[in-house]
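User: tokens in, sequence out, please.
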């Protein structure tokens, strides 16, 4: 690779990573890599409800503001993640006692306080995350239980009221699993569009694995583009150990296979209309900070940088995807 080649400098759309604020503060190699390679940042956890809104009348902006300041100083876009989710709920919300109107007010206040705080600094948001189950049914989240299925549309309206310039995304995973899940997501989006609900983008997480049928990726990406909205591959990683083999090691062959898979996904994404390319974000930076090893308690190497922050074959695969 020629000296000076970077992801952000080589790709025709924004390329980002989910960033861990503790590492950004304390790990100089990580920080330098983030500055060098990416032009878009998503906070891995710093803008989630449990982090930002720990008590009903207390907001903790520290890590999120740090990330936003870092991004401003280094010319990076910040994509906000996530205003409303069934996970990462602070206990005061889980235990909240109130009638429907009180819950509605809680939801609205939560969204609008956060969006207002970052107005002019965070230009896009995952408004609602993971509202559906893999079988296509609506997840029976606390929000559905308290406010009914149309809470989703109202979340977008509340966010839009607070910052009419923000780009608002519906974010979920599993578009590539098969037609069932992506169809319910597309139906939701088309329904909201037809009602004039302010939605600008679809986030496809793409936590995927090296042995996924490639046509499933193409189907996910092209169908998402058919909404006419901005398309964000929002949490990309390509797992190499989906069967949880505790003794697996990373071979050259496996790393090369992974590179081909990154190449395929980037190429499919690059084929959608330019105006819809919001960008690709990987979920975490390196194999040292991936969520996968901790979450599934297994060795894995899903990212384009290894545990020493060196480029893997997947890095070249990403670059080759736009050739
Ligand atoms: O910070 C605390 C620590 O103080 C405590 O000792 C420890 C004990 O459990 O927990 C730590 O918090 C953990 C946090 O990550 C920071 O490491 C939480 O338990 C853990 O649940 C949390 O996991 C995050 C997960 O979302 C849930 O919010 C992962 O880091 C994050 O990568 C993951 O990201 C999600 C996206 O938001 C949505 N799509 C899927 C993706 C992967 O699961």
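Assistant: Sequence out:
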């Amino acid at each position: 690779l020629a000296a000076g080649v970077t992801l952000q400098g080589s790709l025709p759309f924004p390329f980002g990573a989910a960033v861990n604020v503790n590492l950004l503060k304390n790990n100089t190699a990580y920080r330098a890599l983030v500055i060098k390679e990416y032009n878009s940042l998503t906070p891995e956890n710093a803008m989630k409800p449990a982090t930002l809104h720990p008590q009903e009348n207390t907001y903790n902006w520290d890590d999120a503001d740090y990330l936003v300041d870092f991004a401003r100083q280094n010319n990076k876009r910040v994509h906000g993640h996530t205003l409303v989710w069934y996970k990462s709920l602070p206990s005061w919300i889980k235990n909240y006692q109130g009638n429907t109107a009180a819950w509605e007010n809680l939801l609205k206040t939560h969204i609008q306080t956060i969006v207002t705080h970052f107005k002019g600094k965070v230009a896009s948001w995952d408004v609602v995350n993971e509202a559906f189950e893999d079988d296509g049914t609506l997840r029976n989240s606390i929000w559905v239980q308290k406010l009914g299925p149309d809470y989703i549309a109202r979340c977008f309206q509340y966010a839009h009221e607070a910052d009419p310039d923000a780009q608002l995304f519906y974010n979920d995973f599993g578009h590539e699993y098969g037609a069932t899940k992506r169809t319910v997501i597309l139906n939701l989006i088309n329904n909201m569009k037809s009602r004039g609900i302010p939605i600008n983008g679809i986030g496809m997480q793409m936590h995927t694995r090296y042995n996924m049928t490639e046509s499933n990726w193409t189907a996910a990406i092209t169908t998402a583009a058919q909404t006419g909205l901005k398309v964000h591959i929002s949490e990309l990683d390509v797992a190499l150990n989906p069967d949880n083999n505790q003794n697996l090691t990373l071979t050259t062959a496996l790393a090369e296979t992974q590179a081909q898979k990154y190449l395929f996904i980037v190429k499919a994404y690059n084929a959608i209309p330019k105006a819809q390319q919001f960008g690709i974000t990987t979920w975490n930076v390196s194999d040292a900070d991936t969520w996968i090893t901790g979450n599934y308690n297994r060795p894995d190497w899903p990212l384009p940088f290894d545990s020493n922050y060196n480029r893997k074959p997947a890095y070249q695969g990403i670059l080759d995807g736009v050739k």
